[in-house]
Design brief:
Blueprint lengths: L9 H23 L5 H23 L4 H24 L7 H23 L12 H17 L25 H18 L5 H8 L3 H11 L3
Length: 220
């Protein structure tokens, strides 16, 4: 049984070379800043872990501002070490501000890693319910409605008949003249118009007839 030849990925080789050189540059810079022994080797691991944590967060949340911030911080630390060890910085006489930055990096990296790991992410949208289940429920409801008999229709009531209009009372002309004479005599005697109630009491006629006379004479 023949074995398949091992295929070398050029991208993987480049990643190994870049990681090894960046790791060495960060170690040299940390050692020059006063971090000797195992501490100098811990700095490259801290920088690379923060860079990987920020990149993994960006893969799931592209618009996460905190992830972009920590990604840029870790990238600047890695690139800064590569540039500083390229002959631009005297590693025998490291400035004080750089020693302060290197000494404060562990706390900064711990803070960034904690925020990246424990920050809440958006909950995924709930999966929609199966369509078949909805159809079964709809069919069941339709069947139940078919089994229930419809209530009998209420009998329609006949429309109310309009009330007959009361016949108009016709006042005889002689009676109307008599009533007018009474009102004029009252006005001439008292100087005031005769009221409707006084005229009705004076005539002694039924209510509809008295009302008809009062309407004709326009009394109040």
């Amino acid at each position: 049984m023949s074995r398949s030849p091992v295929r070398v990925d050029a991208v993987l080789v480049q990643a190994v070379i870049a990681g090894a050189l960046s790791f060495a540059h960060l170690h040299d810079l940390a050692e020059a800043a006063g971090q000797t022994g195992w501490k100098a080797w811990a700095y490259p691991v801290s920088v690379d872990l923060l860079l990987v944590a920020a990149w993994r967060r960006l893969r799931t949340a592209r618009k996460d501002g905190a992830a972009w911030t920590w990604f840029v911080i870790a990238l600047v630390a890695s690139l800064g070490a590569n540039i500083a060890t390229a002959g631009l910085l005297d590693l025998e006489h490291v400035p004080d501000w750089l020693c302060i930055l290197v000494a404060g990096w562990p706390a900064l990296a711990f803070l960034g890693g904690t925020l990246l790991v424990h920050s809440p992410t958006d909950d995924p949208a709930p999966a929609p319910a199966p369509a078949q289940a909805v159809d079964d429920v709809a069919v069941t409801e339709v069947d139940m409605r078919r089994d229930i008999p419809a209530p009998p229709a209420a009998p329609e009531l006949p429309a109310a008949l309009p009330e007959p209009a009361a016949p108009a009372v016709k006042v005889p002309a002689a009676l109307l003249d008599h009533a007018r004479q009474i009102t004029e005599t009252h006005r001439a005697t008292t100087g005031t118009a005769m009221g409707a109630d006084a005229l009705s009491a004076r005539l002694g006629l039924p209510g509809p007839m008295s009302d008809a006379i009062v309407t004709e004479l326009q009394l109040t």
